[in-house]
Amino acid sequence: MAFERVASLSEIPESGSKAFDVRGTPVLIARAPMGIYAVGAICSHQYTPLEGGKLKACFIFCPLHGVRFDLRDGKPAGTLTDQPIPTWPVMLQDEDVLVDLG
């Protein structure tokens, strides 16, 4: 695994998310109540940004139509899409958020 620094933890709001460009890949870092996650930053339903979507437990809700994605595996719930969003390993090192895009 090749983890790389994406952000400082202080850049990600508690119970919020922020999108970053990591080597040309849109990555959303979500600081959810159940932990910190790295997922694709674009909804697989209408290809809109997920940044700013409501977080609940380990789920993010798309701000456009409310599609719910599981931050652990990217799987959607509901009928609007059956396409998951990508997920990547994430870890904290001191105050740095590190992601492995593989």
From TrEMBL:
Presence of keyword Iron: yes
Short name of any one Pfam family annotated for the protein: Rieske
SUPFAM superfamilies the record matches: ISP domain (SSF50022)
Alphabetically ordered keywords of this record: 2Fe-2S, Iron, Iron-sulfur, Metal-binding
Domain Rieske: 4-99
UniProt key word Plastid: no
Protein name (Swiss-Prot/TrEMBL): Rieske 2Fe-2S domain-containing protein
